[in-house]
């Protein structure tokens, strides 16, 4: 939010192009070693050393490739200064093994307080550094330097919080089992991440850095909300489903219940965000990003559809169906490529946003098929479970539309719009949850009773 006010759309777009390439490569540098350690019923020193060995080979190799390819990549996109950004970002690949493996050890032991400390501390330092560098005229280089500093802080804190496991020396044997899982997991992650990064490369090549900046802000707003709401889900999902399976419990029931709770929170918020995208973007990024608002409004529906089976990849990996997980991602991404490319060529930036919605619908349908045939989650029973969440989202969307009619968001101070939404929408959401007897109702009552007991 702060950097969007300090840098121009062109500067943001230039860095977005570089980071999109690096983000895709970054998914390969782990090669599933962290997922392997999380899924294991028992972790030995030999397994940790082998995970380090495989991660170092892949991550350091990719870092070298990125550094060597920095000039050719900059020439391909025809953007001055991009090569230096690639070189700076390649540093993260050197430290990655000593971040990912400790992170896996923390995740499998549910030490999320330490993980939160690592993420918050590194993010605060990154933000402070990027502001200082921008103020001193470093332009988009500020983002690259600050990101490298963030990685270094994560490296130091990750080793500190796992100091009880004094295993740092890699072993280059016993890596086949890790790589077997890693190929599926890493490629699946790459394909999933590419849905957010490919448009930057597509628009960067066929359009301009300014267009990249506008689209990345619009999509970034939606991704920011989704990530904020789901940040506590992704780290927990794989160890949770793995533990359920290792104990012989019902993975299907656990998946359905968790999906109902997630949808009840995520869908209404994204539905409201689709209506209030303009004032939200003005409040977060400033008036210079108004053109990103229509993109965010459309992309919100992509995020809703995609969040329906947000835990599907982790559930499939947990039950040993990583091959099916990869197949699902490849099918969705293939259709995504076609939809977004045609959308941009025919309708420009908004066409890409509608391509996202099409891929979101594809993701929902394909994920539903794989979850039914590989995990056992029935399509009709799943839809029946989340239908109350859909009703809650529809009611909240309608309330936001009425509010927009009462006080036109485009002509009202974004801060005042935020106050109105904060005053009206939470009671509407809560009342609908209670009236429909949504599964969240029981969770809210538990929280309420705990609060009352402490008074």
TrEMBL record:
Keywords: Cell membrane, Membrane, Transmembrane, Transmembrane helix. One of its GO terms (cellular component) is plasma membrane. The keyword Magnesium does not apply. InterPro entries: Poly_Biosynth_Transport. This is Lipopolysaccharide biosynthesis protein. The keyword Membrane applies. It is found in: Cell membrane. Pfam families: Polysacc_synt_3. Coiled coil: none annotated. It is a multi-pass membrane protein. Belongs to the polysaccharide synthase family. The chain crosses the membrane at residues 12-31, 52-75, 81-100, 219-241, 261-281, 293-311, 331-358, 379-400, 415-436. It comes from the Bacteria.
